[in-house]
Amino acid sequence: MEQVLRPVGIAEVSGIAEPSVAGISWAAVLAGAIASCALTLVMLSFGAGLGFAVVSPWSHSGVSATSFEIGTGLYFVVMAMISSAVGGYLAGRLRNRWIGVQTAEVHFRDTAHGFLAWAFASVLGAILLASPATSLLGGATSGAMQVAGSQTSGPMQGYVDTLLRPDNPTADNTNTGGDTRAELTRLFTSDFHNGGEPSAADRSYISKVVAARTGLSPADADKRVSDVITQAKADLDKARKAAEHLAIWLTLSLFIGAFSAALAATEGGGLRDGTWGRKASR
Questions:
Q1: At what angle do helices 200-214 and 178-192 cross, to 10 degrees?
Q2: Which residues partner with 11 through β-bridges?
Q3: In sequence order, what DSSP letters do the residues of 220-268 get, joined into one string?
Q4: Is there a contact between 136 and 47 (Cβ–Cβ < 8 Å)?
Q5: What are the boundaries of each domain within the chain?
Q6: Is-contact 225 199, C-beta < 8 A?
Q7: For the segment 27-61, what is each residue's pLDDT rounded down to a tens digit?
Q8: CB contact at 8 A, 218 and 240
Q9: How far is it, in rounded angstroms, from Cα 33 to Cα 92?
Q10: Are 126 and 119 in contact, with CB atoms under 8 Å apart?
Q11: Strand partners, 140
Q12: Which tens digits make up the pLDDT trace of 58-92?
């Protein structure tokens, strides 16, 4: 009887030879994802240092807010390209070698290894790197987000302080009262929620409180209230636009990172099989 010899690791199903080795190496994917996350953490720390180096707390010093925002977005793109490419390359280079698999199928599997390494790194990074990323984002939008104030005070405390600032500060009228301040803070927070602004009744009441607490005339008190509301709306709109732009940059960096990981994985897999140079020469 004639015996058919098959290479080790090849199984025949319905007359078609198919390798019995799994089409994906999860160990290689995990290694690439961990390397990508670690490199992302390093570059986040480096980016935070660069951010502190170029910004300045003094006006007309350091880079402008627009330049800093664009630079931060470009840094996110470069960071995603480098970390994803390294992770994808390791996932392609460290995967098991497939015997008896067509070249097109090998190319697809290498691409899938890079994409999965990027996806795993993105999910893992969202969990483990949330705090460093939040710190970097906070530094990137510090100029636009000063409206939020410190963490120990509400976002409207600065505007209330401006409203209740006495016209002629003395030892007797510097204390504007905690109850009044808390009431105006709640009123501003409620009115500006969901992009609104104080109603006519609230504006009239705020003007009366400001006039009574600061010694301003009703007309001057009403003008101060209008100026503070205008400034608050401008700051909130600036913060919204800054968050919108950063979200767009982050989305763009994620797409570029996925492409870089898949491309680097095909190179790593080709070098693993010794076919990358021959492909390039052809």
A1: 150
A2: 18
A3: HHHHHHHHHHHHHHHHHHHHHHHHHHHHHHHHHHHHHHHHHHHHHHHHH
A4: yes
A5: 10-143+246-281, 148-236
A6: no
A7: 999 999 999 999 998 988 888 877 766 665 555 56
A8: no
A9: 12
A10: no
A11: none
A12: 555 666 777 778 888 898 999 999 999 999 999 99
